């Protein structure tokens, strides 16, 4: 019971931190960094810090590779679905469609995660009607929060398909994470995600070359924002998220993604003085009720 409560609390905290990253990312964008450069720098710093931490504190159990090539392939897929491809599709989507469309599609990934888990684990994972209704209710609440009373969507096939690709990436990431958390430590899994995320982003720079100078990276305005995104939002949050999926299961953990728009709007209200509306309160209530129902066995 205590571990379950801790799992939910850490899931909420992780999603809340991820919801705040738009502020720090925006600061880096204003200083001339591209989204791909921000992702690469985040993962480089997070990977090196995690590698150093493991070598110092866990050197006796340190390993470079998985126990089999199949598991190593899963680690590779985790790196692209939770790292490079997810990030590129999500950011590219906003070039072709609205932020509202992108947020709605990407934040619906828990529904696809539930479907994937139900198909892949037919024998061990059975969802009750109450859980399904709870997940749908939470998804409806997320839509209400994102739309915020403006029930107008601008369809863009390219942008919406890219956002849907990001949505599927995170759903597959959650499913794959469930398959390895019982056999490998969260440190090993997270380090592999960072490594393969960085490895698979390299082809992007062949098409779009260029990287910020050391003078830009080590300027105080960039460095502190980058450290928060690297250490807190990447290294610590990815470690915690791996443990949360192991503890709560892929579907229940991923349902916390519905809270992402809530935390984003709260930070926007706090830091950017944006208005909290009745639609936001109604959507938040639906999400909370849906989350409670989706956790019922």
Explain how this protein is built.
This protein has helices at 2-30, 35-57, 69-96, 99-106, 109-120, 129-147, 157-180, 186-207, 214-217, 220-248, 250-255, 260-271, 278-294. With 297 residues, the protein is an all-alpha fold. Helix 1 (2-30) runs antiparallel to helix 10 (220-248), helix 2 (35-57) crosses helix 10 (220-248) and helix 3 (69-96) crosses helix 8. The radius of gyration is 19 Å and the shape is globular.
Ordered list of secondary-structure elements with their pairings:
Elements: H1 2-30, H2 35-57, H3 69-96, H4 99-106, H5 109-120, H6 129-147, H7 157-180, H8 186-207, H9 214-217, H10 220-248, H11 250-255, H12 260-271, H13 278-294
Helix pairs in contact: 1-10, 1-12, 2-8, 2-10, 3-7, 3-8, 4-7, 5-7, 6-13, 8-10
> Secondary-structure element sequence?
HHHHHHHHHHHHH
Form type: globular
Biggest beta sheet summary: none
Strand count: 0
The number of helical elements comes to 13
The overall pLDDT average reads 82
State the distance separating the first and last CA atoms.
14 Å
Query: Residue share in helices?
Result: over 70%
**Beta-strand proportion:** under 5%
SS-based class: mainly alpha
Give the C-alpha Rg. Answer: 19 Å
Low-confidence runs (pLDDT<50, min 5 residues)?
none
Describe, in short, the structure shown.
It contains 13 helices and no strands. The chain has helices at about 1-30, 35-55, 70-95, 100-105, 110-120, 130-145, 155-180, 185-205, 215, 220-250, 250-255, 260-270, 280-295.
């Amino acid at each position: 019971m205590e571990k379950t409560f801790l799992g939910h609390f850490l899931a909420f905290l992780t999603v809340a931190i991820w919801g705040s990253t738009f502020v720090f990312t925006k600061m880096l964008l204003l200083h001339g960094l591209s989204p791909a450069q921000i992702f690469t720098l985040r993962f480089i710093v997070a990977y090196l810090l995690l590698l150093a931490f493991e070598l110092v504190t866990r050197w006796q159990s340190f390993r470079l590779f998985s126990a089999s090539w199949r598991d190593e392939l899963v680690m590779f897929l985790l790196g692209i679905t939770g790292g490079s491809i997810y990030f590129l599709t999500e950011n590219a989507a906003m070039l072709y469609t609205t932020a509202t469309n992108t947020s709605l599609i990407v934040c619906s990934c828990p529904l696809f995660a539930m479907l994937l888990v139900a198909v892949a684990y037919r024998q061990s994972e059975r969802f009750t009607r109450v859980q399904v209704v709870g997940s749908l209710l939470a998804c409806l609440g997320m839509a209400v929060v994102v739309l915020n009373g403006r029930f107008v969507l601008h369809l863009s096939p390219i942008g919406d398909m890219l956002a849907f690709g990001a949505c599927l990436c995170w759903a597959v990431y959650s499913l794959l994470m469930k398959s390895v958390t019982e056999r490998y430590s969260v440190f090993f899994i997270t380090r592999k995600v960072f490594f393969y995320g960085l490895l698979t982003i390299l082809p992007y720079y062949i098409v779009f070359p260029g990287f910020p100078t050391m003078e830009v990276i080590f300027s105080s305005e960039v460095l502190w924002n980058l450290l928060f995104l690297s250490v807190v939002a990447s290294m610590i949050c990815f470690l915690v998220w791996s443990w949360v999926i192991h503890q709560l299961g892929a579907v229940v953990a991923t349902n916390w993604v519905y809270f992402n728009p809530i935390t984003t709007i709260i930070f926007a209200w706090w830091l950017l003085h944006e208005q909290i509306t009745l639609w936001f309160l109604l959507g938040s209530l639906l999400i909370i009720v849906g989350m409670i129902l989706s956790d019922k066995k």
